[in-house]
UniProtKB/TrEMBL annotation:
Region called Disordered, residue ranges: 1-35
The organism's taxonomic lineage, starting at the top: Eukaryota, Metazoa, Chordata, Craniata, Vertebrata
Compartment(s): Nucleus
Family, per entry: Belongs to the NARF family.
GO cellular component: lamin filament; nucleolus; nucleoplasm
Quaternary structure and partners: Interacts with LMNA and binds to the farnesylated C-terminal domain.
SMART domains, alphabetized: Fe_hyd_SSU (SM00902)
Species, as recorded: Rhinolophus ferrumequinum
The keyword Phosphoprotein is annotated on this UniProt entry: yes
Record-level Gene Ontology MF annotations: lamin binding
Keywords: Nucleus, Phosphoprotein
Protein name per UniProt: Nuclear prelamin A recognition factor
The keyword Nucleus is annotated on this UniProt entry: yes
Compositional bias of kind Basic and acidic residues: 1-19
């Protein structure tokens, strides 16, 4: 086999797996660009299709293919059914965490407000036997706050001899996997070390929440509901179980589309229910999001923080300027005609590739880049915005963007729960435990240089 953009004669993506029983979900590739056609190849029997792949340097191993194949509705229902049997020693507490970018999809599909859609989703999951349904916004709070602090540190430490800028965001698993498995040095040192919201949510559920409930982490089965398939691979990151007693933070990742399919096949009576909190609050919290048009908005939050901390400038509305295309935008802070900060947002792999080439040549003028693999951002994740023909459902996406824009924005700094968790759970924002729990490190693939410079 040969992929359309492959630099090798043969594609090294695996096409078989020994785990025939668990492989049953048809999952289209998140990497396929909007409106483009490419040759599709099956990865294992999980039926994840790799189209327009970035590099065929074994970025998905055979073992990972098997593990991804287990992250499907069958595995979810296996645990649900196990809980209904008499042997309570095998029972697990089922917790589901929902990404905020998934909620507009449910609202559009149900023709409900985003609040009512959240309550409908929560009620349905609990009718299946799920014990807790959480919102991952609090985990994104931590990721954004840690990214803000790290950028300020890097700005002060940056020099020509030891360049620490630009800082590249690390919340998008498709981008991070590409950087780690294909690009390696000199790109990975620029990746922000703050863990993604999904990884931090895993620690919150399997560590903080487990302690509050007097549960061992392996007694909790944690499901993430997300807009893209790359989140399934993110759940397999090697370094993640270290602080969780060998229990992965996310045991299963289901896309928004997979959940809607489950709902469509169910005839269970559903009573709307409120989303749970990690703290056991009885009062339902208000749905909120961060300041991004279709994502968690790292650029806007880090930009405002850096402007204040570094130059004592208070920035209100962040003004974006589109450059090459609508998916590559920049934001600048200027004083007396001099540019103090130059930030950018790069969405889609063509913009990412241009960014990487310029960065390697030393012709990249930005201090910070929010990088997202999906053109259009997280709402465009192929786990929820894909039409039957494999292209992006543009009408649905426009509807989701309108819904998402009306969710109230609240800065991470204003969350009293987050500030309390820094002290109660982590022993302070600057503690070794906070560093270990909220940050990660990146590996180098060790591939030859020619395999890294892929031309589009």
């Amino acid at each position: 086999m040969k992929c359309e953009h492959c630099t090798r004669k043969e594609c090294s993506k695996k096409t078989k797996t020994d785990d025939q029983q668990n492989a049953s979900v048809d999952v289209p590739s998140p990497a396929q660009e909007n409106g483009e056609k490419g040759e599709f190849h099956k990865l294992a029997d999980a039926k994840i299709f790799l189209s327009d792949c970035l590099a065929c340097d074994s970025c998905v191993t055979e073992e990972e293919g098997v593990q991804v194949s287990q992250q499907n509705a069958k595995d979810f229902f296996r645990v649900l059914n196990l809980n209904k049997k008499c042997d309570s020693s095998l029972h697990k507490v089922l917790a589901v965490s929902v990404c905020p970018q998934s909620l507009p999809y449910f609202a559009a599909k149900f023709s409900l407000s985003v609040t009512d859609a959240s309550r409908r989703l929560c009620g349905f999951l609990k009718s299946l036997g799920v014990h807790y349904v959480f919102d991952t916004t609090i985990a994104a709070d931590f990721s954004i706050l840690e990214s803000q602090r790290e950028f300020v540190r890097r700005y002060h430490q940056h020099s020509e001899e030891q360049p620490t800028l630009p800082m590249l965001t690390s919340a998008c698993p498709g981008w991070v996997r590409y950087a780690e498995r294909v690009l390696g040095h000199p790109i990975t040192p620029h990746l922000c070390t703050a863990k993604s919201p999904q990884q931090i949510m895993g620690s919150l559920v399997k560590d903080y929440f487990a302690r509050r409930q007097n549960l061992s982490p392996d007694k909790i089965f944690h499901v993430i509901v997300a807009p893209c398939y790359d989140k399934k691979l993110e759940a397999l990151r090697e370094d993640f179980p270290t602080t969780l007693h060998s229990s992965r933070g996310a045991d299963c990742v289901l896309t928004s589309g997979e959940i809607v399919q489950i709902m469509g096949q169910s005839d269970l009576p559903v009573k709307d229910a409120a989303v749970d909190t990690l703290f056991g609050d009885l009062e339902e919290g208000e749905l909120r999001r961060h300041d991004g048009a279709s994502s968690d908005g790292y650029l806007a939050h880090v930009f405002r923080h850096a402007a204040k901390e570094l130059f004592n400038e208070d920035v209100g509305e962040v003004t974006y300027r589109a450059l090459r295309n609508k998916d590559f935008q920049e934001v600048t802070l200027e004083r007396d005609g001099k540019v103090l900060l130059r930030f950018a947002a790069a969405c889609g792999f063509r913009n990412i590739q241009n960014m990487v080439l310029k960065l390697k040549k030393g012709r990249f003028p930005y201090h910070f880049v929010e990088v997202l693999a999906c053109a259009g951002g997280c709402l465009s994740g192929r786990g929820q915005a894909q039409a039957e023909d494999g292209r992006t459902d543009k009408a649905l996406l426009r509807q989701m963007e309108g819904i998402y824009a009306h969710i109230p924005v609240r800065p991470a700094e204003t969350s009293a729960h987050v500030q309390a968790l820094y002290q109660e759970w982590l022993g302070g924002a600057d503690s070794p435990r906070a560093q270990e729990t909220l940050h990660t490190a990146y590996g180098d693939p060790g591939h030859p240089a020619h395999s890294r410079d892929i031309k589009w």
